[in-house]
Design a protein that fits this description.
Pfam families: SPRY (PF00622). By secondary structure, the protein is an alpha+beta fold. The chain is built from six helices and 17 strands. The strands form three sheets. A seven-stranded antiparallel sheet has the order 4-7-16-9-10-11-12. The longest helix has 38 residues.
Length: 356
């Protein structure tokens, strides 16, 4: 039995659901909810019959994922038994101290391991499997990023209509949606890499310029390319914390930042050209001196994935901890200049991640 809607105009019948990924409102909606909450993505609204068809269609995707999950578990079970039967780590390292039974068992396992190595096909299969698993892991991770991004993107201002005919209501809603489609925020997402040109000498880049670390105990910094240019309204990028001693991540005015040369200082003045947060919970702002080098209530840990959303329309930067699914900090910034993502670090390592 379909319940009545619990909105402010409560009591009306639920007529359908919203299937827009970035919708932050209640998905099951009455006519009034549809008009007030889902106007910007009205073409993603399904009535209950369409929802039933949608459910049947998505069962195919779920069944495929479930089959992969079951196949993976069966392979893991076979591999577990295989590893146990060939385990040579438990034997005494000193061969002379082993009993005859242990020598026989050890030799039998060594012969089998040698055959596995010489045949080559099992190792090759595992290498291909590992690569495929790595690709699958990265794709799952990317999907998580996109879920998180959509959860934190603010919906556009709602528009309330007042008409009587439900058919006319839908026509007006769809007409207004089409009119406003071209006003949606433009999101440009490009490949992002650490710069070989704009970095300190103690910075090492690895894995096709996606991982950065320092060679000594001194502070280092590196910009990411491409930067955030004037015609980009929104830029999204992310960093995975591999090793965490001290680090700060965010954006900077390249020209102003580079004027510091070797005199890197974000603590004693706010003319550093940066908008950053560090792992201990401090924030640093070029725009507002009262927000520079101030402690806040958050921490960044190893393996955390931090998504940064730079919105030039609202003139705000958001830092989101995807691992903890929390919004860390929001900061205003001067949007009149071009920006570059920047990482500052000491005895740490960070990976930059594409958001496609």
């Amino acid at each position: 039995m379909i319940q009545s809607c619990k909105c402010d105009d409560g009591g009306q019948k639920i007529i359908g659901v919203c299937t827009a990924l970035n919708c932050q409102s209640q998905r099951a909606s009455c006519v009034e909810c549809l008009k007030q909450l889902h106007l910007q993505h009205a073409n993603k609204f399904l009535d209950l019959k369409q929802l039933s068809v949608f459910q049947e269609d998505k069962k195919k995707t779920f069944s495929y994922l479930k089959k992969f999950y079951n196949d993976f578990n069966r392979l893991k079970s076979i591999l577990d038994n295989f590893i146990v039967s060939l385990n040579i780590e438990a034997y005494e390292k000193n061969i002379e101290n082993q009993t005859i039974s242990q020598l026989n068992s050890l030799t039998d396992k060594l012969v089998k391991l040698n055959y596995i190595e010489q045949s080559g096909y099992l190792i090759k299969s595992f290498q291909n499997l590992i690569q495929n698993m790595e690709d699958a892991k990265n794709n799952i991770q990317r999907l998580k990023f996109e879920y998180t991004l959509n959860e934190f993107i603010s919906p556009s201002q709602n528009i309330c209509l007042s008409v009587n005919s439900s058919q006319l209501q839908m026509q007006i809603i769809l007409s207004l949606y089409r009119q406003q489609q071209n006003k949606n925020t433009l999101v440009i997402q490009e490949k992002i890499r650490f710069s070989q040109q704009y970095k300190t000498d103690n910075i090492i880049l690895k894995d096709q310029e996606t991982i950065v670390s320092t060679t000594d105990d001194k502070f280092g910094w590196v910009l990411c390319e491409p930067g955030i240019i004037q015609n980009q309204f929104v830029k999204n990028f992310a960093f995975e914390i591999i090793k965490n001693d001290w680090l700060a991540i965010g954006i900077c005015h390249k020209d102003q930042f580079l004027k510091q040369k070797g005199n890197f200082d974000i603590w004693d003045n706010n003319k550093h050209g940066c908008y950053l947060i560090d792992q201990s919970g401090k924030v640093f702002s070029q725009l507002k001196i009262e927000e520079n080098n101030k402690s806040q209530n958050f921490k960044i840990n190893n393996q955390d994935i931090i998504i940064i959303i730079v919105d030039k329309t609202s003139k705000k930067i958001q830092w989101i901890n995807q691992t903890q699914n929390t919004q860390i900090w929001i900061m205003e910034f001067d949007a009149s200049q071009d920006f570059y993502p920047v990482v500052c670090l000491r005895k740490s390592s960070i990976k930059v991640i594409d958001l496609k």
